[in-house]
Amino acid sequence: MSRLFLTLLSLVLIPSIFAQDARVVTTITTDAKPAWKTWHAHDCSVNYPGAWSVDTVSGKPVLVRFQGQASTGQNVQVILKITDLDGLTPTDFHSENGPDRVAKTVKDAKIIASTGPDDSGAYTMDYVGDVDGARLHQREEVSFHGDKAYVLTYSGAPADYDEQLFMAEAVLNSFTCPAAK
């Protein structure tokens, strides 16, 4: 009996000797800006980080620029360009605006990767080159619907490109337009 009593007493006393007080503090904070926002126009939508700015240029082609800032302080951006095909087929559009255009119009251009066009005419290309005096790394994703081409371009300085690529891909992948993808 005394052995049982000592065992029970030790089970009660030992944890209390090593017990520590813990204080849990819970705070609820709200972001000053929503994590993501959605741009809607021309029957299309794009999700973009809430801290990024949006600029729209009216007219033809439609241009929308979603712009953020990398840790280096340089801007990164995704541009949506909606343009009329004006009778061009997706194959013709690719011939005029694909890798050959980059090689001819972007100084010191180097195509890093290019995929497509697929059966719908959609294609993607990554390249670096000098644009308006700045060295940029760009990814263009082009899709077609009806008589329109939808060109999404992610652009940033080579040092910032990879850092912001996950965010830019989320923006690019969020693009929706009726049957454009």
Can you put this structure into words, describing what you see?
With 181 residues, the chain is α+β, with helices and mostly antiparallel strands. The protein has four helices and nine strands. It has helices at 2-17, 90-97, 99-105, 158-174; strands at residues 36-41, 44-49, 53-57, 62-69, 75-84, 107-115, 123-131, 134-145, 148-156. The strands form two sheets. Strands 3-4-5-9-8-7-6 form a seven-stranded antiparallel beta sheet. It is elongated. The model has no long low-confidence stretch (mean pLDDT 83).
Strand order of the largest sheet: 3-4-5-9-8-7-6
Dominant shape: elongated
Cα(first) to Cα(last) distance is 79 Å
Structural class: alpha+beta
Average of per-residue pLDDT values: 83
Number of strands: 9
Keywords:
elongated; 7-stranded antiparallel β-sheet; 9 strands; 27% helix; two-stranded antiparallel sheet
Task: Provide a concise account of the structure shown.
The chain is an alpha+beta fold and 181 residues long.
Describe how the helices and strands are arranged.
Elements lengths: L1 H16 L18 E6 L2 E6 L3 E5 L4 E8 L5 E10 L5 H8 L1 H7 L1 E9 L7 E9 L2 E12 L2 E9 L1 H17 L7
Antiparallel strand pairs: 1-2, 3-4, 4-5, 5-9, 6-7, 7-8, 8-9
Helix pairs in contact: 2-3
